[in-house]
Design goal:
Number of helices: 10
Largest sheet: 6 strands, mixed
CATH topology of the largest domain: Rossmann fold
Shape: elongated
CATH class of the largest domain: Alpha Beta
CATH superfamily of the largest domain: P-loop containing nucleotide triphosphate hydrolases
Helix content: 25-40%
Structural class: alpha/beta
Bound molecules: adenosine-5'-triphosphate, magnesium ion
Radius of gyration: 24 Å
Amino acid sequence: MAPIISIRDLTKTYASGFQALKGVSLDIEEGEILALLGPNGAGKTTMISIVCGIVNPTYGQVTVGGYDVVHDFRKTRAMIGLVPQELTTDMFETVYNTVSFSRGLHGCPADPDHIEQVLKSLSLWEKRNSSLRELSGGMKRRVLIAKALSHKPKVLFLDEPTAGVDVALRRDMWALVSELRKTGVTVILTTHYIEEAEEIADRVGIINHGEMLLVEEKRALMRKLGRKRMVLDLISPLKSIPGRLDEWRLKLASDGMQIVYEYEPNDNPGALMALLAALETSNIGVADMSTRQTSLEEIFVELIGKKP
Ligand SMILES: Nc1ncnc2c1ncn2[C@@H]1O[C@H](COP(=O)(O)OP(=O)(O)OP(=O)(O)O)[C@@H](O)[C@H]1O
Ligand SMILES: [Mg+2]
């Protein structure tokens, strides 16, 4: 099946001369949940804004449902719901009207049943007659999502939907995203919470300095880059790792009291036992040991060189 969104060689140089995107290519399949991860200023919002037709690309092509986002803007925009990173809404309007008008702005006729269903699914129905300035920050964010869903989009962009949102609402949001996926909606979200990507995404894209470093199915990524790490606490300090243990590429902690061994989980089932035997032969006494799997966060830090 043709991808719902196709991005080819996308480049964006802002009027200031700053190059925010440097030739990004990406296909997004219908019905998937894609998480875009990257540090501040990586180019996530720029990319989303171009797909949504808010920012013009400098070079490259983007299609949504087969239509070009520049030449067939109306057709592509009608298929897209966007929850922007910045909150910008008329604070004096009521919840109901804000969401219902949004449908009109997308050229859709009124549909009270749909608006009711959307407001209920976001626990906003009781607040439908409140004006937005009477709502809490998290509720305002939910109104933005309701607006983005008002015209039944095929693709939903959530640009940091859970920034500054409490844990309960974040979980609600995740539940909502999986509900949407069941109805066939494609969801692209940006986040600084790696846990969020780990929890709900089918695929993860990592973007840095305007370049897409990788896009990979989440499970395959964890398999490919996720290593296991065994930490051995030593009985007495070691000055250096003996040469005969070179093949294990062990790391010694600065106090000499710990050895760290990193390995691929399925690499070599006998490797751990062999290592322990080799340590014994070298008269290195082990007091305790523990193993754990590297997380998506550690994979990210390794690629980018800093925390998300
Ligand atoms: N209108 C603009 N004019 C000039 N430079 C811009 C403009 N908008 C964004 N930029 C720059 O482009 C780069 C990418 O910004 P963008 O908003 O796409 O990053 P982001 O990945 O969404 O970051 P964040 O995680 O902070 O939201 C940044 O260096 C930013 O300063
Ligand atoms: Mg952004």
